[in-house]
Amino acid sequence: MLPAAVTLGAIFAGVLTRYVRSSLLEVLRQDYIRTAWAKGLRERVVLVHHGLRNAFIPVITVVGLQVSGLLGGAVITERVFNLPGMGTLTITAINQRDYPQLEANVLVLAFIVLVANLVVDVAYGWIDPRIRVGS
């Protein structure tokens, strides 16, 4: 089970690492970061509180988009590592023309993607209070 998780996670970890790096480099060039340094704040405070917090907004967007890719990649990974799961169940339902089972699988996977998008939207408001609705 661990090799399958590493296989799925390795691809997305590389993409996320690049997004975090590029987003953080872009944020660190902003004027408010320069002001925080000039005020004499500690490096950790500047990087974590001011830098990473603002750099995570595009990263959270990418994580939300990767959920559907993760679900699609799980189908292939389950087949390669011979693991039972939603992907294997979906492929079996397609091969056996079990339409009610296939509809249920698609409904569950769509619900997972919707919940992931909801979590991303809530995380936006948590990370950046300016984004909150009604404030």
Task: Describe the SSE topology.
Elements (H helix, E strand, L loop, with lengths): L1 H27 L2 H8 L4 H39 L4 H10 L3 H29 L8
Helix pairs in contact: 1-3, 2-3, 3-4, 3-5, 4-5
Number of strands: 0
Strand content: under 5%
- Structural domains: how many: 1
Cα radius of gyration in angstroms:
20 Å
Give the distance, in angstroms, between the N- and C-terminal Cα atoms: 45 Å
Mean pLDDT: 88
| Category by helix and strand content | mainly alpha
The low-confidence runs, each spanning 5 or more residues with pLDDT under 50, are: none
Largest sheet: none
Helix content: over 70%
Order of helices and strands: HHHHH
| Shape, per Cα inertia axes | elongated
Oligomer class: single chain
Q: Can you count the helices?
A: 5
Description:
The chain has 135 residues and is mostly helical. The chain has one domain. It has 5 helices and no strands.
Question: Key features?
Answer:
single chain, 135 residues, mainly alpha
Summarize the structure.
This protein has helices at residues 2-28, 31-38, 43-81, 86-95, 99-127.
